[in-house]
Amino acid sequence: MENKLLQKIAECVERGKVDIKSPHPPDMQGSEGADELTARALEAGIAPHEVLSRSLIEGMKVVGERFRNNEIYLPDVLMSARAMNAAMEHLKPHFTSGKVKYKGRIVLGTVAGDLHDIGKKIVGMFFEGGGWEVIDCGVDVSEPKFLKSIEEHTPDAVGLSALLTTTMVNMEGIVKGIKTRYPDIKVIVGGAPVTGAFADKIGADGYSPDPQGALDQLIAELT
Ligand code: B1M
């Protein structure tokens, strides 16, 4: 029953089925979507981490492969992103600790030119779950925007995300700008095309391919 439910949620992400009211895709009209099924999975006691990794991330992997192979197009990918976001709304409270005293503060953003925000939001959820205060600057965040947010919020760390090979190069200027003005602030980078070697080359303090690794690295850097 658990596997079946998780499989159904993954299918909703793959097909872009947001909720029961959503008319897309036509052959799934009237059936529950990522929204309702995720709520049901949590009610049934399935761990939020399981839903995230086995349904949402797995479903999105399939979407990426189909998009790369020209089997689906941008509007389909957008519907999948909506379905994933609807599911994530249910998971979010389970990842946040609810602690009043934060362990640290991080400014997060997807770098200039890049509109992908799902992975960055998940990173934010892990940090909140780890007791950090997260200031999410959103997507398409330029160096001046990061600097303004740092000035305003005085974080311990900044996290940069990029999903495109054409935008990860924008990380270099942003990292340099931050490190020049705020040498003590730790800067960590991530996102599918980013590698440890690239992070070293651009002068970032840390890199992780996944959210938990980013959290662990920052804790190690700051203690
Ligand atoms: Co785009 N897209 N997209 N897209 N999209 C990719 C990234 C792509 C790989 C698809 C493909 O071709 N197979 C490809 C990039 C190729 C490349 O550069 N190598 C691509 C392309 C080409 C494009 C456009 C250029 C398409 C076009 O217009 N022709 C365009 C660019 C728009 C722009 O940004 N300027 C575009 C647009 C979009 C949508 C808007 C439709 C939508 C985004 C919606 C949204 O985010 N709200 C979208 C989506 C959904 C994808 C795919 C299918 C899924 C991305 C995703 O959300 N993955 C993606 C293919 C894929 O990745 N399979 C693709 C799920 C998410 C949980 O994983 O984001 O990797 P991810 O995050 C992970 C880790 O990377 C890591 O942790 C996260 C959780 O596990 N991580 C960090 C991320 N940030 C981190 C930071 C850290 C640490 C870890 O520390 C700070």
Structure in words:
The chain has 223 residues and is of the alpha/beta class. The protein folds into 2 domains: 2-96, Orthogonal Bundle (Methyltransferase, Methionine Synthase (B12-binding Domains), Chain A, domain 1); 104-222, Rossmann fold. Helix content is 56%, strand content 11%. It has 10 helices and 5 strands; from the N terminus they run H-H-H-H-E-H-E-H-E-H-H-E-H-E-H. It has helices at 2-15, 34-43, 48-68, 74-95, 118-129, 143-153, 165-168, 170-181, 196-201, 211-222; strands at residues 104-110, 132-136, 157-161, 186-190, 206-207. A 5-stranded parallel beta sheet has the order 2-1-3-4-5, sandwiched between helices. Helix 5 (118-129) links the parallel strand 1 (104-110) and strand 2. Helix 1 (2-15) packs antiparallel against helix 2 and helix 3 runs antiparallel to helix 4 (74-95). The longest helix has 22 residues, at 74-95. It is globular, with a radius of gyration of 18 Å. The model has no long low-confidence stretch (mean pLDDT 93).
